[in-house]
Design brief:
about 180 residues; alpha+beta; six-stranded antiparallel beta sheet; two-stranded antiparallel sheet; 5 helices; 10 strands; globular
């Protein structure tokens, strides 16, 4: 789980390029192909690690392993301007500080509390997997940054509000975090 891409391709895609697509860019609607640089956002939560260890991050998934909320894929060039605008907007907003926080948002420096949903943002490249069960080509995200970064839902909502059309139930459960508001 985590960063595989085989299930997010339009199964009825027309044309050779679309058949080779690993995912579809949520911003431009064009296919994301092998070797493309991209952003991947996955909804997660975190629980404390033991004895000062790093928090344990969990992808929100059904008991059968399927995602509860579909990952968000975008070409690097499509998302680059959005992330830059978001960083500039966050400079004027004080960070939220919950009583206990496990992580810090990579954009606004707000604390992320235990079990609070957040996005794990991965910058990487789509590569073919060395493993191909049933001879079906699978893909994985080769991380081009050292670690995925935590991004709070308030920042994600400010950058790409349409993202939350997919995740409305998550937003309803956040209460006073002002997700999507300035």
């Amino acid at each position: 789980m985590g960063s595989t891409a085989e299930s997010w391709v339009d199964e009825e895609a027309d044309g050779e390029e679309e058949e080779d697509a690993v995912a579809i860019c949520a911003l431009c609607g064009e296919p994301i192909l092998f070797a493309d640089e991209m952003f991947l956002l996955e909804l997660c939560d975190a629980t404390p690690g033991g004895d000062g260890e790093a928090p344990f991050i969990t992808y929100l998934a059904e008991p059968n392993g399927d995602y509860v909320f579909e990952p968000y894929w975008a070409h690097f060039e499509c998302g680059e301007e959005i992330w830059e605008d978001l960083r500039e907007a966050a400079e004027d907003r004080p960070p939220a500080e919950p009583a206990v926080s496990l992580l810090k948002c990579s954009i606004c420096d707000s604390g992320i509390a235990p079990l609070e949903p957040f996005c794990l943002s991965t910058f990487g490249e789509i590569r073919p997997s060395g493993r191909s069960p049933d001879f079906v080509q699978a893909a994985y995200v080769y991380r081009m940054s050292r670690q995925p970064s935590a991004t709070c839902l308030a920042c994600i909502a400010a950058a790409i509000p349409e993202y939350f059309d997919w995740w409305e139930d998550v937003i309803d459960g956040l209460g006073d975090r002002n997700v999507g508001e300035d």
